Structures are given as C-alpha cells and as structure tokens.
Amino acid sequence: MAISMRTARTASYRIFRFTKEYRWTLLGLIVVVVGVVSTFVVIPSSVLMVEAVLSVLLITLEVRKNVREAKKTSFLPRPIDGFEDVVARLANDDGFRVLATQAGTFVHDRRTSERMRSPEQHVRMADRSYVVPAQLQPHARRFLKHVLANHPHRFNGPCLGWNTNFTDPAWESGDIEVVAGDHFRFVQSDELSTKDVEVDGRVLPEFGRALFVSRDGAVRNFRDSWLFNHIGASTLAITCDGRLVGTMQSEANIASPKLLAPSGSGGVEPKDFKGERRLPLSQLAINAATRELTEESGVEPSEMAQSYLLGFGRWLDMAGRGELLCVTFLSIDSHAVRQKRLRRSEKAYTARTDSLRFAQPLREWNPAKPAAMLPNGHRSRMSVPLGAALSLLAEESARAGSAVRERLLRLPISP
Fold first, then answer.
1. 3.90.79.10, 1.10.10.10, 3.40.50.970, 2.30.110.10: CATH of 78-409
2. pTM score
3. What is the structure's pLDDT at 21?
4. Are 337 and 355 in contact (CB under 8 A)?
C-alpha cells in the first residue's frame, strides 16, 4: 500500500510539473483536437465544459507564474560608478584619454578616431539584424515590461548597433560592420545592462556592469558582446557669430535628463545611410548627427555650412556606448537660431535650445577641462556627450593644419 501511494504521488508530481512546463503546448493541443473533432461529430457540452475548465486552469498557471516572477525580480539603479578599474587599465596607454565629468565617464579612443576620420574607412550594413540573445532572456522581456509600464512615451523606432571589434587589427583593412535593430531591443540589452538585476534578494553577477566591462577592467568588444551596442551620434553647432548651440534635455530623456546636451544628439538610424548599404564612416556620422540637429533645434540642412567628424569614444555609464562626435558650422547667427521652434515630436525630450557664448577665448581651450568652455551657469549641467564633444573640439582647435581650426579662427569667439 505504501509503495502504491508513493508511486501515485510521484506520478501526480510529474504530471503537475509537465503541465506547468508545457501549459501553452497543452492548451494549443486541446484547442486543435476539439476543433478537428468538431468538424466530424457534435461534441457534447460536457466535453466542451471540460475543455473550458482545462483552458482556465492552464491560463491561471501562467498568470500566477508571471506574477511570482515579477514580484521576486527587481531592476535596481547601479551605485555611482567612477569606473576606477577601467581608468587604471588605460592610465599608461596614450591611445586613450579619459574624461571624468559630474554626469559620467567618457573614454576617447584616439587610434580608432584617426582611422574613422579617414575618407577610406567605410561602414556597411550587415545582412542580419540584432536578436536579443538567449543569455539575456527572460529578464530582458521583464525589463521591457517594466520600462514601458513606467515610461509609456517610449516607442519602438529603428536604430543601428556596432558589430566590429576595434581592438582587432583585421578591421583596419576592411569595413566597419553595423547591425539593424530597434529601440525595444536596445532596451532589452544596452539599457538592461545599466541596471542591477536582483532575484529573490540576490544580485545576479552575470548581468549589469559585467555585460560591458570584464573582470580585468577591459571594456568589452562590440562583436563579442551580447549587447546591441547602440551607435550614438552628436554634433556641436556653432553659429556664424561664434556662439555654441546647446539643447536642454527634459526629464524624460533617459541618457541626460535635465542636462545640457550637444546641439544635436541621439542615435544612428538605417535612414542615415541615405539608401546606400555602404558609406564612409565619417559621412554616416555627419548624416546622423545633423539629422538630430534638425530634429532637436530646427536648424535646416541648408543652414549648415560644413560638418566634420571630430572623433569616437565609449560612454561607460551608458553600457560603454560607442559615440560618434561631430562639429557643424552654421551659416546663420545665434539670433536666427533662437527663432527656431522645436518640433512637436521632440518636445517630450528637449526642453529648449540655447545659444551660448564660449566662456574662454580659443587659445585657452583645454581638452581636459571642457566645462570651463561653458558659461558658469551651465557648467554643472554639462552632459557627457557635450563634455566629450567639447573636449575633442578643444583638441582639434590646437591641431596645426586642421580645417576645423581654420574655421574657428575666422569666427568671433570671445567670452
């Protein structure tokens, strides 16, 4: 008798576990069987009642599972991170320059920047699109639900991600590859990595910072990463009367809430290829950055005299995002810029546009102190992309023979 009871309990347990694991398969099978049989015979109402009860049971199991998982999983903001291990690793490497600001940390990659600025360096679209890897699921799906529940203004627009390892010498003799994706896939990978994932009170060590910084303090390569690696693009617009155009971001902006951003700042999209599959990298960067400039400040392409790619770097606080930073010289003055109106679609993210005097003359610009280039009232609100772009602009302004330097010298830049 005891053996029979044990066997029955084991069988019941196995049936219950099987039902929980394959509940949707069972529900689909029940519906299919009932549908096929009903084409040949009239199904008794008692059988239909049993089907309805089983369907409700299986759906209830799914709902309970999702509720339990949601309750025991939390997505926590990471503590303030100065990335001391990354900085220490790069301290003696002249190929990198670290910029630490109040808003975050940026690493300028000098070698990659020089290569990208070459007209011979091209970028091409990969044949495949980015797919959120199994290693990030199911927390990626839960995080997306969490984000959409708290930020209903989010929408699923197209974007591009890096798919090339810049530490691999092979890329220097070939094209840079990028992959297509969308905002929700970015949320489930890049944005997820900016949070700590806690399950039942335990922070999962394989998520969060570990997704883009290895144990030895190295920032992970793009192609080897599980992340989408969204491509950022920004430009500094300088008016013909020597003023800097800045955009104050709203609280809804996920990257730089309530901070002063570059004149145009956002992400590269497939449409920035202008219908091509392959472009010079510098042209793609300028296409994306100037599109953002038009969208965020209202400056039209016909009012842009010339744009240049300043360089590339990694924004560590945003999952090590690879940023393309440009400068755009305008053919209009600061008064004309102030007359521009924000597009209705941008008002959720951009609070206003400002035309700022540089706080220092050109000869005093210091790449290590970009905030000093801004007026006093704006220095504490300098975003990471703005600081990184100003730093590169200061560096370029001192480079002999630079086309950017020549244009700057012709402008009335003064405090």
1. 3.90.79.10
2. 0.84
3. 57
4. yes
